[in-house]
Amino acid sequence: VSTQSTGSSGINAEYGEREMSWMADTYKNTIGTTDLNSHACVTGKPIVMGGIHGRTSATGRGVYHSTNIFVEDPEYMEMVGLVPGLSGKTCILQGFGNVGLHTARYFHRAGAKIIGVIEWDGTIYNPSGIDPKALEDWKLEHGTIVGFPGATATEEDLLEAECDILLPCAKEKVITEANAHKIKAKVIAEGANGPITPAADEILIANKQLVIPDIYCNSGGVTVSYFEWLKNLNHVSFGRLTFKYEFDSNKHLLQSVQSSLESRFSGKIPVTPTPEFEAAMGGASEKRYC
After folding, report:
1. Which end of the chain, N or C, is less surrounded by CB atoms within 10 Å?
2. 185-221 tens-digit pLDDT
3. pTM to 2 decimal places
4. Do 104 and 114 form a contact (C-beta atoms < 8 A)?
């Protein structure tokens, strides 16, 4: 089966770069032995196996940007009774895996407060805010968020706790007809796939709560996976084809400025690029914008 005609599979729950590399390797060495585009069979692979810079954080970054667009809009915020802007907003996060971690990072950088984190083996709460980096380090060392010293363990169902923004980034069907009326968050951003059932969605909308749907909210990962797929089909990294053209164009631009100055002021006036401009002269790069 040609990967070029059928598309590819991407990262999902419990899968990471390691698992995707296993899949790509297995496909290549079994039914994909004659497929020139075998690496395009899956996305979310490590860079060394044809992956793309920025894929790991793409879904969480998309959750942040898609939510921020609505939160910055005065009309939508007036509808739910909040002031525009993420700064100072309280957030509760369900799931601290790949999507939840990077969502928390971007929200934290924007000035929002992550006051609660829900995981499969425990729930932690701190009304003053939880530092995502400190929690990540704790989880990497201990394999769990339980016992994190920067927050207090709680038995409360934080999905129903008071907050401005609820970020379900773990699994499907966590907000249903049975508990939708208990949700107090003004904004619910679907970082996971289908965390809100259709019946629950109707209840939330009737209660004047803003629901940002998953097909839009978590599409950052799918978008970057598409570019990884194209990279694998084209067999070249983004920016390689335009590198020489852009580099030469920028050199000619500097030379033109130097010639104009020298003709006006009569003398040698060297024009050299700043370190920032010199770095940008390298042309497009998939790594630069991660």
Report:
1. N
2. 999 999 999 999 999 999 999 999 999 999 999 999 9
3. 0.80
4. yes
